[in-house]
Amino acid sequence: MRLRLEQLPTDLQKKLHPVYLLCGDEPLQLGEAADEIRAYAKQAGYTVREVLNAEGNFDWQRLSVEADSLSIFAEKKIIDLRIPSGKPGNEGAKALLEYCSRLPPETLLLITCGKLSPQAQKSRWFQALDKAGAVLQVWPLQGAALVQCLQRRSQKKGMHIDPDGLKALASRIEGNLLAAAQEIEKLYILHGDNAVSAQDVEQLVADNARYDVFKLMDSLLPGRINRAAKILQGLKAEGIAEPVLLWALSREARNLFNIKTDLAQGGRKDSVFAKHQVWDKRKQLVGAALKRLSLTQLEDILLLCASADRQIKGQSPGDSWETLFNICQRFCGAPLMAETA
Q1: Domain stops at, among 159, 179, 207
Q2: pTM value?
Q3: What residues have CB less than 8 Å from 256, skipping those under 6 apart?
Q4: Are residues 327 and 221 in the same domain?
């Protein structure tokens, strides 16, 4: 059966399913849903937990071994199976089908994995898991849904963040709920149950070195290459991880590409900006970038991002920091270093 995230607490109160499949590309929601299932299972007597990480050369026979074995005290058991890629392969598919064909007693199988493709959701193993238990898919939150989620999280802490403050927080965390949870915790430590304004949120952001990444983006959108180069050099000196920078750069490029595409298809500017979480303070910056950059140029930036990703992972030769600088140059409409040589 399919469950929505908001249905999980009520469903858990009714009963525990023998199988849960949690999938998606929003890690905080996935982690919290898994924690909630494990907590209910523990209350129901599932005190033994075996964690299986299906990566690399994982032996799928371990799943059947765990399914067939109980402790000497015959305690109920959770098999916590993690498939980060969302692709169990042929052996994994067979193992999951076999498991579902003879569900072991006193055992709960909890599977967490990345986002599943439409093809994977049509596979026999996925259908078998869906029939045997509950499937819950989580999605990254955007726009009003993200703001509402931040409001619920802050209220759960006993906080009150005003509407502009929530929008400012949503803009800064860029849809990253892990970052949002951390920032709400910091705001709570600083302000307790006092009202939190947009200025309070922005002050916290300004005081946090991590958000120099966003200062970099704010300099790139209007094409301020000198300031961007200075910030990039500072981030390198501070030891900011290259994947963090690449994430911010590639996300901004994809966002600009999608906005420009929607506008070209006749979308109204205000509704397109709202759809892509472009709040009031960033409208001018994003507008400047949209005027300066064509779809072809944005595609070039995304190709450079892919190149930087391979360099960071050691899969391609070259200096990844040099490529990150080239990406900044392209954002500002400047020629690449190689082109000026």
Answers
A1: 207
A2: 0.56
A3: 286, 289, 290, 293, 298
A4: yes
| Domain extent for 29 | 2-138
Q: How many CB atoms lie within 10 A of CB 262?
A: 17
Q: What is the structure's pLDDT at 211?
A: 43
Convert the chain into a string of H (helix), E (strand) and C (coil).
CEECHHHHHHHHHHCCCCEEEEEECCHHHHHHHHHHHHHHHHHCCCCEEEEEECCCCCCCHHHHHHHHCCCCCCCCEEEEEEECCCCCHHHHHHHHHHHHHCCCCCEEEEEEECCCCHHHHCCHHHHHHHHHCEEEEECCCCHHHHHHHHHHHHHHCCCEECHHHHHHHHHHHCCCHHHHHHHHHHHHHHHCCCEECHHHHHHHHHHCHHHHHHHHHHHHCCCCHHHHHHHHHHHHHHCCCHHHHHHHHHHHHHHHHHHHHHHHCCCCHHHHHHHCCCCHHHHHHHHHHHHHCCHHHHHHHHHHHHHHHHHHCCCCCCCHHHHHHHHHHHHCCCCCHHHHC
Q: How many domains does the chain have?
A: 3
Q: Are residues 199 and 231 in the same domain?
A: no
156 shares a domain with 58? no
Are 9 and 127 in the same domain? yes
CA neighbor of 32 nearest in space, from 228, 225, 178: 178
Asked if 184 and 296 sit in the same domain, the reply is no
88-121 pLDDT, tens digit each: 989 999 999 999 999 998 899 999 998 888 888 9
What's the CATH code of the domain at 198?
A: 1.10.8.60
Within this chain, do residues 161 and 109 fall inside the same structural domain, yes or no? no
Which one of 173, 207, 241 terminates a domain? Answer: 207
Q: What is the pLDDT of residues 2-43, one digit of tens each?
A: 998 889 999 999 999 999 999 987 778 888 899 999 999 999
Looking at the DSSP bridge assignments, the partners of residue 2 are 135
Strand partners, 51: 80
